[in-house]
Amino acid sequence: MNVTKTELRRQMRRLKASHTAAELQSLSAAVVHRLLLTEAWQQAHTILLYHSLPDEVETHSLIAEAALTKTVLLPVVVGDDLILRYYSATAQMTVGAFGIGEPTGTEFTDYADIDLAVVPGMAFTADGCRLGRGRGYYDRLLPRLTRALKIGLCWPFQLVDTMPTTHHDVRMDAVVA
Fold first, then answer.
1. Residue 2: what pLDDT?
2. Where exactly are the structural domains of the chain?
3. Is pTM, for the whole model, over 0.85?
4. From the candidate CATH numbers 3.60.15.10, 3.30.300.20, 3.40.50.720, 3.40.50.10420, the one assigned to the domain spanning 5-176
5. Tens digits of residue pLDDT in 29-83
6. Which of 163, 39, 33, 59 is nearest to 119 (CA)?
7. How many CB atoms are closer than 10 A to CB 28?
8. How confident is the model at residue 3, as a pLDDT?
9. Distance (Å, rounded) from C-alpha 71 to C-alpha 88?
10. How far is CA 7 from each of CA 131, 152, 164, rounded to the nearest angstrom?
């Protein structure tokens, strides 16, 4: 049975809602631990992360910890695009579009310097297909990151066998669940 992107997003929202906040926090800790063990994470110097929403693998403590030893970038929604800004422990954060925490500091434009991009999604396949929220922000940003390894981050129940894709959907190099 072929499922549409809209149906798959709806399915994922139901699955997320079937878990308690404590369960999702516990699952997040395990997923983040697996990410920290990857060679890609250990060798990366400049990392694009995301400031998680309540229905995403929690990254707030990961961001703070990473900023101690790595250059951390976070996306900021500007119109129909994402720009990147530096994050540091002293960064001023504001609530941006869609309720996402965004740093207010200096913009980062040296995309070729990014070693690793850790990307959220509604669902992923093991071979790297990603279903986002449907607005295409990451699909427009990621092609600019010419050198970065792209890792999708999700809870294990967000892994699916197949999903519909289109030509502009950017595939992940790896998925950590």
1. 76
2. 5-176
3. yes
4. 3.40.50.10420
5. 999 999 999 999 999 999 999 999 999 999 999 999 999 999 999 999 999 999 9
6. 59
7. 20
8. 86
9. 8
10. 11, 20, 11
Cα distance between residue 84 and residue 76, in whole Å: 6
**Contacting residues for 109 by C-beta, under 8 A, at least 6 apart:** 84
Nearest 5°: the CA angle 122, 75, 68 is 105
CB neighbour list of residue 176: distance below 8 Å, 6 or more residues apart: 31, 34, 35, 38, 151, 152, 153, 154
> Is the Cα dihedral 151, 12, 7, 52 positive or negative?
negative
Token match 């309540």: residue?
54
Mean pLDDT of the region 136-141: 94
d(CA 1, CA 88): 46
